[in-house]
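We now fix the convention by which a protein and its fold are recorded. The integers have meaning only within a learned vocabulary of local backbone shapes. The record below shows the convention in full.
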Amino acid sequence: MASSVDNALTRIPTIPTTRMQDVQKLVRTLQALLNGLPLARLLSLVKLCTFLLLLVNAGSFPFAWHLRVFWPVIVTRIRFLLLRVAILFKPPAERKRILAEHVEKLCPVGANPFELVTIYKRWASIDDADMFGMHLSNSSYAKALDSARLRIMWKAFPAWGVSRGVIALGATHYHFIREIPLFARYEVRISIVSWDSKWMYLIARYVTRPKGRRGTKISTTTSNRNALLHSQPPPDTNSNGDSSPYDTPTLIHQADGTASDNLEKTLGEALAATREATSTRRPILEPDGSVLHCIAVSQVCFKQGRISVPPALALACDGFSKPPPLPCGSDVGSHKVPPRYSPSNPPPHWPKVQEIRVPPTGSMVNFKRFLAGGWKEVPGADGSVEGTGDTAGIAGSGGRWWEEALSGPIEEKRRKNLEIVEALKANLEEVRKIY
């Protein structure tokens, strides 16, 4: 046994003598420099090195990730608490009305779910980078996506958040296309791409703006002002590029379409690009000239207690809807196109939501009970119900209005995109069988 170990050790390659001499020379030089320094200067140098080490790793401190991800939730909770304190001495009915109006103002009433895009800005810092490849490490893509995903969920579903509902992550699929260089600034553009009876799918696109090329900034312009939820400026961002959680989400209405419009085209280009040789690989450009580096598809579900809530219901309860129908005999290019739905021009299903959630007919308690099972008492298209009748009093009337609210062009796009993401999901699930 000992002889076999000795033979194995002799086969280990030794460090070249010249390399060892270089290392020893470097150690002697450093020793000479440190021995020549006064103790006070040596301590100052140690303090400086320690400070720099802590500074470059500040993003990985304990609870730094929690603050970065949950910052919108923390700010919103604090503002909501301050509002409750400010109206503490008002009559109970008045307090309920003010709080309900506050929640309703945050809802994206009349918005198209496929037009909602949230942009989360980051940069490839040293503690997020792979120092061997000098680019953003694979694990940092997930860290950035955690923050981006919560921001779009918090902006799209404010009433759901107030009801204490949970949005749980089921899976995330990444497709890496090009590396993000060290110190580069990048954006995570995340949007809703589809949903089924249980799962909602989000697509995140990691992009950078190339140096020397001025891309068209995604912002409110004269041509797309009518695509915003409200006649308000785009939300301000902080130093990290995080949008304020109290601002309404910016709805981007582009001639080239949103991420959900180009889903099949983008995934096809990404797969084709990664098959090319590295030396000949061409960048995939976004409509605004940004370079696409990675695509991530996330799968989330809505939970109220132990009950899974259909994503269509969550969307409709926060104001999302199909566009208003065109008058008979008019087309998309006609001047007779009706105005978009908005808080001042709500979609037809919105009074049903307010009947459940807004005083005097409703309350947030009723809304939670409705989400926790009351929706099952609403009859479907065939007249059947899923519930037991215990919550029939808060189920509302008029059939499953949330399905009607997201029908038409919304339903067509949902089905088209769902075929793509379900094919991706099915192929990856087949991989589990490979051993």
Residues 214-257 have pLDDT under 50 and may be disordered. The longest strand covers residues 291-304.
